[in-house]
Amino acid sequence: MAAVLLVVLGVALVSRAQGPVVERRTPPPEGPSQPLPYSHRQHLELGLLECADCHVNPDRGRLMTFPDTDTCLSCHEAMPASAATLKRLESARVSSTPLPWTRVYRLADYVYWSHATHIGAAIACETCHGPVAERDVIALETNITTKRGCVTCHEARQVLSDCGDCHEPRQ
Ligand code: HEC
Ligand code: HEC
Ligand code: HEC
Ligand code: HEC
Ligand code: HEC
Q1: Terminal CA-to-CA distance of the chain, rounded, Å?
Q2: For 5-50, how does the pLDDT look when each residue is reduced to its tens digit (9 = 90+)?
Q3: The pLDDT of residue 19
Q4: Cα–Cα distance measured from residue 48 to residue 52, given in angstroms and rounded to the nearest whole number
Q5: 161 neighbors 155 (Cβ within 8 angstroms)
């Protein structure tokens, strides 16, 4: 019994010492309104899609990008039941303009950032963006766009802490 208690206490202490590296905002703020009421929860529940089907990291760089209209139409073209969505997607295709999604997570331009490095370090999307697959609307759920959101993890992992690692001039 005492041994079990010690183990439980030990686990609690360890997780407290590490702390939540990227902090959650609770309750999360409201997300922006979007050109279509696209829901991650509704789509990921289908069990047919993965993040990488819609978010790629071109040239292993800064951005994850948004899916092109054809990705959406690959299903919606055959779904006349959601007529309004289909109409909006088709007019985007006809005019060759991507849907104007409102960005939620955005860093100041003077911050050097790369998704590629962090995905390469096996950090899950959810660590920085929260439980996206459970969300109907994406909101700024964590403090990842603040310096504290970056530095707390870098300190915990003992990686880069020089000003020049995240700001100009970058060597
Ligand atoms: C794998 C197939 C698939 C892909 C890819 C897909 N959808 Fe859907 N979408 C669905 C299904 C299935 C539903 C649910 C219909 C229902 O339950 O009534 C849905 C529902 C929706 C809805 C809810 C309202 C409505 O019209 O039913 C919107 C809005 C939507 N999708 C937009 C998008 C957008 C934007 C994209 C591209 C970013 C996309 N979808 C990609 C299959 C897909
Ligand atoms: C069918 C395509 C599709 C899939 C699959 C998908 N997403 Fe998205 N994602 C979108 C679209 C469209 C938006 C823009 C609308 C919005 O913010 O909800 C978006 C927005 C986001 C954003 C907010 C970006 C910003 O800052 O504006 C994050 C974070 C994100 N997705 C993460 C994920 C993760 C993590 C997964 C896998 C669990 C995933 N997405 C799967 C289509 C997709
Ligand atoms: C270590 C934290 C971190 C991880 C891990 C992470 N992101 Fe991000 N994400 C960010 C930050 C910071 C931004 C804002 C970047 C900017 O403004 O240039 C962002 C922006 C985005 C955006 C919107 C703008 C764009 O095109 O980049 C999408 C979409 C996105 N992330 C999806 C994902 C997906 C999908 C994954 C997992 C494969 C993921 N992110 C993993 C921190 C992270
Ligand atoms: C959850 C942990 C975590 C968070 C949060 C995080 N990082 Fe990192 N970062 C790492 C790790 C681990 C590495 C080392 C990767 C390697 O060496 O392969 C790294 C490396 C880097 C590098 C050097 C590699 C490169 O791409 O040049 C920069 C710059 C960087 N991070 C910037 C940021 C910024 C800016 C933020 C906040 C927006 C941030 N990081 C948030 C874990 C994190
Ligand atoms: C791991 C990445 C990282 C490191 C290391 C880092 N910064 Fe930052 N810094 C950021 C981010 C992210 C922001 C944006 C903060 C925001 O918009 O809330 C920022 C913002 C700033 C700003 C704008 C004002 C402010 O505080 O919001 C200044 C000035 C600054 N940093 C100076 C420094 C100096 C000096 C160092 C070295 C002691 C340093 N930074 C180290 C990521 C970093």
Answers
A1: 56
A2: 444 444 434 444 455 789 999 888 899 999 999 999 999 999 999 9
A3: 58
A4: 12
A5: yes
122: which 2 tokens? 């096996």
CA-closest residue to ligand 3 atom 9: 105
The reply to whether the predicted model has a pTM over 0.70 is yes
Sequence-ordered strand ranges (E) for the chain: none
- Residue 147 backbone zone (phi > 0: left; psi -120 to 50: alpha; other: beta): alpha
Nearest listed ligand to the Cα of residue 123? 3
Mean pLDDT calculated for residue range 123-131? 96
pLDDT at 32: 94
Show Cβ contacts of residue 25 under 8 Å, excluding neighbours closer than 6 positions: 140, 141, 142, 143
Name all residues whose Cβ lies below 6 A of ligand 2. Answer: 34, 38, 40, 43-44, 49, 51, 53-55, 66-67, 101, 103-105, 125, 129, 132-133, 138
Question: Which tokens belong to 54?
Answer: 């819609």
Check pocket membership of 40 for ligand 3, CB cut-off 6 A. Answer: no
- Exposure string (b/e) for 25-54, b if CB count within 10 Å is 16 or more? eeeeeeeeeeeeebebeebbeeeebebeeb
Q: How far is the CA of 62 from the centre of ligand 2 (A)?
A: 16
The domain limits of the chain are 25-30+103-171
Identify which ligand lies nearest to the alpha carbon of 103: 2
